[in-house]
Amino acid sequence: MNPSILMIDDSLLLHRLVASQCDSLGMAIHSAYDGGNGLTMAAQYRPSMILLDVDLPDIDGFEVCRRLKSDRQTSRTPVIFLTAAVATDNKVKGLDLGAVDYITKPFKVEELLARVRSSLRAHRKMEHRAMIDGLTGLWNRAYLEDHLSSQVAQAAQSGEPLSCIICDVDELRVINSRHGRTVGDEVLRSVGQFLLSQCRAQDVVCVCGGGKFSMVVSGMDRHAAGRLAERLCGQIRDLHVVRRGMEIGATCTFGVADISVSGGASLFERADAALKRAKLNGKASISVARPARQRLNAAA
């Protein structure tokens, strides 16, 4: 997806200048001419970058930046001040509020775009690192929530099936207690890498925490995903971690759901509920969610 920029500035001429350059680079630009509309558009469009003037007709840019950074929806959006306020204390104030750069007018458009590109690259790297699990190197729960949301919306539009498989390492606490946390961590890494090796290119494996992994499998309904879970369950029995000459194995329990059974709950919640049902049957069990029963109205 091409990056988008929200420009909050009361100069129509400046909007046209920046927009012409952004268009040539494939960057979409949204224009707001005061702080109030800028805040509304930031929440609505979720831009990749915000260019913000200090001197605005309603709210000054510093207050706009403060509100952007205090709002969960926009707090991580990089902000570059683009302003004629050249005083050093203004620059310090802007950077202290969380802006990634402060550019004073007049400026060269080429320099502005270079600094925008640099800030976007740095932001993407930071966001990427924030969504990686440090132990396994897999995507984490934050990435799972974003990815699952977009995949569910895409599947609803296309009509293609989409499933979520949750895998829980059985008795991880026992493994940690008996063999040490280091061994437990190695078991998690081993299971995570195995799941990743069994994925297709379009599938995603994420760490959910507490010994749980989630697989988002596109183009696969719950019946096919259930068969996949059965195969994985059997193969994981053969995985072993060698520690001081001793082989330590593990088993996993699986919950499976697809978008046809999610109902009022999220796809992840339905898969997690299926996992809890599987746990009632003991270790290395599998449960596939079923459609919720429709309540029949009693005859009058």
Task: Please outline what is shown here.
The chain is of the alpha/beta class. Helices cover 45% and strands 21% of the residues.
How would you explain this protein's 3D organization?
By secondary structure, the protein is of the alpha/beta class. It has two domains: 4-130, 3-Layer(aba) Sandwich (Rossmann fold), CATH 3.40.50.2300; 141-288, Alpha-Beta Plaits (2-Layer Sandwich), CATH 3.30.70.270. It is 45% helix and 21% strand. It has ten helices and twelve strands. The chain has a five-stranded parallel sheet with strand order 2-1-3-4-5, sandwiched between helices. Strands 7-8-6-11-12 form a five-stranded mixed sheet, with helices on both faces. α3 links the parallel β3 and β4. The longest helix is centred in the middle third of the chain and has 22 residues, at 109-130. The radius of gyration is 25 Å and the shape is elongated.
Whole-number radius of gyration? 25 Å
Low-confidence stretches: 294-300
Taking the sheet with the most strands, its summary is: 5 strands, parallel
Fourth-level CATH superfamily of the largest domain:
Reverse transcriptase/Diguanylate cyclase domain
**Intertermini distance:** 55 Å
Overall helicity: 40-55%
In CATH's first tier, which class of the largest domain applies? Answer: Alpha Beta
Number of helices: 10
CATH level-two architecture of the largest domain: 2-Layer Sandwich
Structural class label: alpha/beta
Number of strands: 12
Which short descriptors sum up this protein?
300 residues, alpha/beta, Alpha-Beta Plaits, 2 domains, 5-stranded mixed β-sheet, disordered C terminus
